[in-house]
């Protein structure tokens, strides 16, 4: 059984396990539930590794490199349950073994449509995810929660007829597999979505009849349940959302066909269950990413500038994007290693992915990265596991 989980890089397992166990116990009171709760969780996993205390067994499993997780999940039901749990991610973080990979949805790869690719650090092979269940869609939403990727709703063409979906699928980055989840209460496309405090929110969009929506839903992963919450003040579509400082921000898009693009920002406070509105928004955003409690956007009319939003004072700042390759390149933003990546939306053989480091000294913020999708980038997410 040990050969199934042995990493390629040799290490002294006993010493590292014991060291990690001591570190975990030292900070247990601050980072983990009470001993009683941990024991209750441990009991639900049965015996992970016979002959080892349960907490030490969890640390040993958490020390295994991420690429072995799918094999580990097939060893036993108890291993599978632990790897799928939120506690597994917490233990890996505590022992310093979280691995950050960026997942990119690419289009036009070899004429075979879209597919999800994994771009990790430079010494890792490019991996391709199993195909998503269901028909190919557009206008869908993607969110990451607890090391899992959620792909929600959107619209698809079925025998020449478009239909709007309420389907939700989960990709488990540890086990490398897709699962169907509870459907939304309202089918929608071109909507806003984000995660805030372990809840997924979707808002606005278009419904099955082409009607604009103001409805908002919240998803609880533990209960696998969608719940309708207080609606937006007005319908909104083509918008985007982000979770910053424990609040949900919805920007961009339109609220009316006649008025034009909206600069208002709808802000939802989950603790107060209420919406407020601020006026200084960003319009026609083609891509966005959140890094270190800052929102980074690229607007359709200005692909040569990063717009950054600070929720502390609702202020905006513009950062010029250097010219590289074609001056007309459109970008899709990604995040990896506390840096912003600018993937090309167009297939340009000579293009090198731009990388922006907010923490770098002045004049050194921009570099290039060898990370590059096989085709044009549709969207990207970052998953730690």
TrEMBL record:
Pfam families in alphabetical order: F-box, Kelch_KLHDC2_KLHL20_DRC7
Does the keyword field hold Protein transport? no
What is the superkingdom listed in this entry's lineage? Answer: Eukaryota
Domain F-box, chain residue ranges per copy: 50-88
Which UniProt keyword terms apply here?
Answer: Kelch repeat, Repeat
Tell whether Repeat is among the UniProt keywords: yes
Q: What is this protein called?
A: F-box domain-containing protein
What species is given as this protein's source? Urochloa decumbens
């Amino acid at each position: 059984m040990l050969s199934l989980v042995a990493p390629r890089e040799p290490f002294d397992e006993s010493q590292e396990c014991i060291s990690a166990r001591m570190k975990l116990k030292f900070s247990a009171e601050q980072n983990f539930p009470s001993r009683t709760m941990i024991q209750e969780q441990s009991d639900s996993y049965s015996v992970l590794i016979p002959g080892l205390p349960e907490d030490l067994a969890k640390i040993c499993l958490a020390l295994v490199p991420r690429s072995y997780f799918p094999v580990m999940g097939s060893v036993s039901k108890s291993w599978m349950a632990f790897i799928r749990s939120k506690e597994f991610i917490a233990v890996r973080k505590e022992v310093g073994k979280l691995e950050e990979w960026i997942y990119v949805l690419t289009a036009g790869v070899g004429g075979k449509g879209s597919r999800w690719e994994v771009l990790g650090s430079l010494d890792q092979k490019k991996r391709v995810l199993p195909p998503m269940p269901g028909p190919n869609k557009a206008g869908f939403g993607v969110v990451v929660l607890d090391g899992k990727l959620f792909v929600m709703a959107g619209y698809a063409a079925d025998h020449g007829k478009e239909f709007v979906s309420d389907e939700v699928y989960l990709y488990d980055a540890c086990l490398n597999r897709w699962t169907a989840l509870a459907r939304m209460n309202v089918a929608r496309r071109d909507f806003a979505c984000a995660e805030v405090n372990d809840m997924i929110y979707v808002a606005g969009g278009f419904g099955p009849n082409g009607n604009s929506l103001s409805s908002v839903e919240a998803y609880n992963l533990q209960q696998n349940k969608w719940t309708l919450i207080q609606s937006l003040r007005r319908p909104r579509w083509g918008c985007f959302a982000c979770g910053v400082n424990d609040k949900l921000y919805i920007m961009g898009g339109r609220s009316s066909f006649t008025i034009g693009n909206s600069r208002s920002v709808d802000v939802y406070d989950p603790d107060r269950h209420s919406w407020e509105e601020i006026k200084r928004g960003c319009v026609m955003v083609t891509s966005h990413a959140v890094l270190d409690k800052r929102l980074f956007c690229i607007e359709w009319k200005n692909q040569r500038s990063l717009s950054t939003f600070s929720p502390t004072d609702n202020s905006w700042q513009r950062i010029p994007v250097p010219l590289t390759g074609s001056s007309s390149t459109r970008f899709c933003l990604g995040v990896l290693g506390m840096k912003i990546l600018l993937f090309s939306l167009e297939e340009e053989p000579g293009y090198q992915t731009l990388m922006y480091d907010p923490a770098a000294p002045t004049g050194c913020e921009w570099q290039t990265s060898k990370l590059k999708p096989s085709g044009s980038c549709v969207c990207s997410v970052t998953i730690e596991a």
